[in-house]
Amino acid sequence: xxxxxxxxxxxxxxxxxxxxxxxxxxxxxxxxxxxxxxxxxxxxxxxxxxxxxxxxxxxxxxxxxxxxxxxxxxxxxxxxxxxxxxxxxxxxxxxxxxxxxxxxxxxxxxxxxxxxxxxxxxxxxxxxxxxxxxxxxxxxxxxxxxxxxxxxxxxxxxxxxxxxxxxxxxxxxxxxxxxxxxxxxxxxxxxxxxxxxxxxxxxxxxxxxxxxxxxxxxxxxxxxxxxxxx
Length: 230
Hints:
The structure is a single chain. By secondary structure, this protein is an alpha/beta fold. The chain has 4 helices and 6 strands, in the order H-H-E-E-E-H-E-H-E-E. It has a domain at 107-229: Trna Endonuclease, Chain: A, domain 1 (3-Layer(aba) Sandwich). The protein has helices spanning 4-11, 17-123, 169-185, 202-211, and strands spanning 126-137, 140-152, 155-167, 190-200, 214-217, 220-222. It has a 6-stranded mixed β-sheet. Helix 1 (4-11) packs across helix 2 (17-123). The N and C termini lie far apart (133 Å). 17% of the residues are buried.
């Protein structure tokens, strides 16, 4: 560090004492001023750099805030879209359910009209009634799609009909078990199963034929002839 005594000592080598004192003070004060300005300039540069950094950070924060808002808006829009989808699915399920009920009812109505005519033709059955009915199966009542009551050769006959748009093998087996339970509860009655529908796969048709039951589908009628005189 430059001091006045050190500078005065050096200046005394070439200048008188009064001049050396004056010059020493001037040089030291000037040196201190120069150092102060340099440091001030350096500090100013640091402050400027810091100001730029703060501004960059503020800009980045603003962009982040904007991105977060856009993400929140997108999530909200997605939530609304999902809600609309759920409403649409619920409405579709309701419509399909209503269509299925309507379709099932139309099949039953069609069966009530057509099955008696076919039984009259193939079995010479005298029809008394044909409609859906609750039948005691085991220890509970079960609604049968179509119950046809009548006589063949003056003997009472009860035809239980399962009406479905598409009859599956599982439905065939289940309905045959139902008929067996009814037969067990009414051993003296002539009770016959019949399947009515738009279609059934090969396995379902084979189960029906092998069981001796009758079936009426859009592809044709299969009513066992041996039942005619039963």
